Fold these 2 entries.
Entry 1:
Amino acid sequence: MSRALHRLLMPALVALLLPWGALHADDAAPVASDPALEARVQKLGEELRCLVCQNQNIADSHADLALDLKKQLREQIAAGRTDDEIKTYMVERYGDFVLYRPPLKATTVLLWAGPFVLLGAVAFALLRRLRTRAVRAAAANTLSADEHARARALLNGEEKQV
Amino acid sequence: MNRFLWPLGIFVVLAGFLFAGLYLNPREVPSPLIGKPVPAFSAPQLADPGKTFSPADMKGKVWLVNVWASWCVSCRQEHPLLVELGKSGVVPMIGLHYKDERDAGLKWLAQHGDPYLLSAHDRDGRVAIDFGVYGTPETFIVDKAGVIRYKHTGPLTPEKLRDDILPRVKQLEAAT
């Protein structure tokens, strides 16, 4: 009984699995066909944000839109467009947000300069603080003539400790 | 005293930023297309593949573009509102049937109602890329000169329609 079932099911299973193998071979085809183009798609895709899954880039994402945009990249690269032209194409449609490295302009100045301004401000505050502390310490270190004499006496062991 | 107040102050400022951030919508990406001419395209009509639609056909009218698909769950959410809007005839609306099969789209419209003047069939999503579509549904307002004036990403709500969409449409219609 079970062997008969086995004999019946196996071909069906194999038949089910075969087209899958064929499908996957189909998926992988563009990579094999032109590795240089695929490398550029990958490199550009890493610079572009997938807007559906916002913390992923297009190269990594398998979202529908990311796949479509990768297709766009492939076609435009094949058509001989430069990286800058393709980025401009994307920005015209999706805005600067699509770039992982936003351009420097009036609205993004704070983004680019902010960390350095903050670092500068903190460094300035720290320096000032250290300097006032040094001055205060120096002031505290100066001894009057009396204290000097006493210190010398102490060091020479001429005065008994209290 | 001062040295304890400083960290507290910094903490309060940071907490304020983070709290405000909780109520921002990261999916609302400002569209660079606002103020730009509507992308030129020509796509087959959903109901009649023999005919095509092009934005030039709508020149001289204020109109809406609504991106939808039968697989899009949030489209279903906003759809009753669109059907109502379609019935009112306030503003013509063109559907952009996005990455979907023709049959599925037609069946969906038959089932849920068709508020569109017509739908353009964007089977491979190319037209939508030109519109910068990244999340269905999306709704655009196009003015008489064919310039995109407003974009909303995500399902429309009655409030959004009443407060943002319709006043803009009225204003653009009044402009010559």
Entry 2:
Amino acid sequence: MKSDPAVAVRDLPVDTTASHDLDLPAIAPGEVLLEVEDLTTTFSSARGPVRAVRGVSFELRRGRTLGIVGESGSGKSVLSRSIMGLVPSNATRTGHVRFAGTEILDASAKTMRGYWGDQMAMVFQDPMTALNPVLRVEQQITESLHEHIDITKAEARATALQLLESVGIPEPKRRLRMYPHELSGGMRQRIMIAIALACGPQLLFADEPTTALDVTVQAQILDLLQGMQRDRQMAMILVTHDLGVVAGRAHDIAVMYAGRVVEQAPARELFAHVRHPYTEALLRSIPKLDMAKHTRLDAIGGRPPDLVNLPDGCKFAPRCPHAQDRCHVDDPALTADPAMAEHLFACHFPVSGVGVGVTVPVAVEPPSARPDPEVQA
Amino acid sequence: MTATTGNIPSAGAPAHLVDEENLEETGTAPAKKLGFAAWLAAGWLTVVVAAAVLAPFLPLKDPDVQSTGTPLLAPFTGSLLLGADANGRDMLSRLVWGTRTSLIVSIGAVGAAFLIGGLLGLLAGFYRNWIGKVLASLFDILLAIPALVLVLALVAVLKGDPTADQALPGELILIIAIGLVSIPLLARITRAQTLAWSQREFVMAARAQGATDRRILFREILPNVLPAMAYIALLGIGIAIVAEGAAALFGASVNPPQATLGTMIDAGRNNMDDAPFVMFLPILVIFLTVMSLNFLGDVIRNRFDVRESAL
């Protein structure tokens, strides 16, 4: 795309990056913006409490990207929505979420509205359903501008135009008048990003932003997100089920399993020294170009545990090739690697990480057809 | 046939004639032919509405003036185009003025129900807490009472003592009575649609951008619900016209000599043997009008409903 993302923020007709509804201290790049401490989210269901997030803690600094990786049902999407406070009424959250030093976990929806869109925004998985089918692109972008910023119609329109240009949409004037169904999938996701960025949030959640897109545009969208994050010095949480998506794009990676972070480390460190058997298994399940023809994919046998009836001990133990008796009774805590303080993992018998030998493909979707786990097991 | 009514309960209205129209609607081409029948329906409604609106300016005889010289004059025979009723009143004039009153009543009633029922339905569908539950049960209770009985009872109460000075004009009484009965119908449809649309991810996306409930309800959800509401309202106008007719048969319509389509049918019953046209002319007008409304409603619904599949 010809437009340079760096142009947009400076040239916006209004300063959208300020804190509009709230009196929050400015967080300089590199300082801690978001602190999550022992966050749990439990849904009440007819079968009993569903423990979707169980004690997640991390810090996120401004200008950094945290990749949250996990398979379906690992709680990664619930985690990001729990942090934002966008959970349904049958969810209970405990723990702490501090944004720019302010506790927001127990804030009212009214207070949170000041954060939503303005301070923290989310790019949703499927731009087809996350855009309103009957509103023009312009209305959808300017909606939150009007919500948070005292702005005239003309200014909002000009801002929307700039935003579209900055997310690499050709002929932005014409697109503003279009409805979502008139746009391609990649284009719609760019619109979603423009909407999320409209008020200049400091924290951006990208919830599987490329899962619903063609493989050919996935890398473009990820590059765009990365460019925007760098340009605006935002903190970003990139949620994905694909290690390939976060490789090279996230500064830190947290691997989630059954609602918990099982391994967390700077990206480079994680790929170099895998410690948790689950992460190792995830990496192994990515097909590699140098594999011999007809190599059977190394899928993870079994299925994730039922979040209502969680097994005792390590939740991954039933599927873990290294599991021993202790793993089935004693749930390991997330502890730091003695050799590397920033590398956390929750495992009694960590793997050495040597010999995994993965060359992680960047932003390439692994084949969706996984072998039947039952056959593998 | 059931496919044409699709996800919207048809509120007992006949769904008909739309199959070929439906087939044409599968494409996404912007310009679609309406079809001959649709034009016919639109044409008839235009004539009816125009006549009703322009009634005071049309060169018509006074609809309420009786003439002893021409009772039950057959249509196309004398000086009066559509003949005269048992009191010698000009049938054409009474049809036009009767249609006018019937339309005022039905559009007024459905319009009021559209606003009130639509708003309540939106709230009931959007708020899943006690507000939604209370409203939903309220609709159910109102729907459980037989509509005609409720209309008759309301008219009786609102009319009060027939010998006393009437406080409310007859049209207004009917608007209130039929409107009240229509509120739960429109509210239920709106609620069902709102429930479905509230679950959509764009609502969550709007909330994640800091939109207030009001903005989400009226800017994000309402535009999506509106086509279904409009469709039901269009059918509702037809139902309201028939309801006025039914009320008239029980003497619960406007007071004589004012004409409505219903009171004309009621009056015509006495002469069914010797002059059936007095009864059947207003019946024909009701029939064609209601059918046109239903038909146009289906066409409009089909047009607006393709949006989902086009995505």
